[in-house]
Specification:
This protein is an all-alpha fold and about 90 residues long. The protein has one domain. Helices cover about 35% and strands about 0% of the residues. The chain has three helices and no strands. It is globular, with a radius of gyration of 13 Å.
Length: about 90
Amino acid sequence: MRGLLGCNFSLYKKDIIAINGFDERYEAPSIGEDTDVQFRLELNGVKVKSLNHISVQYHLYHNLQERLQVNLDLFEEVKKLNLAFTSYGLIKI
């Protein structure tokens, strides 16, 4: 099970609205933003299914060392709170 990839996924609009979209506090690419969305969707009962190896995707290298720990720490905080809805998404609270 590979999980959700933030660069290439689809879902029902009602499901992304229910979790208030992406958490905009994540700074570095590839760590956090997609993992966070998957975690919060699953808290709301959405099943994530990978369709890996069905299409071709090209990826650019990102130098993420400088911001990586910020994202990792943020995702650990999200997991501890165990909340599906973010206050830092589509609607700012």
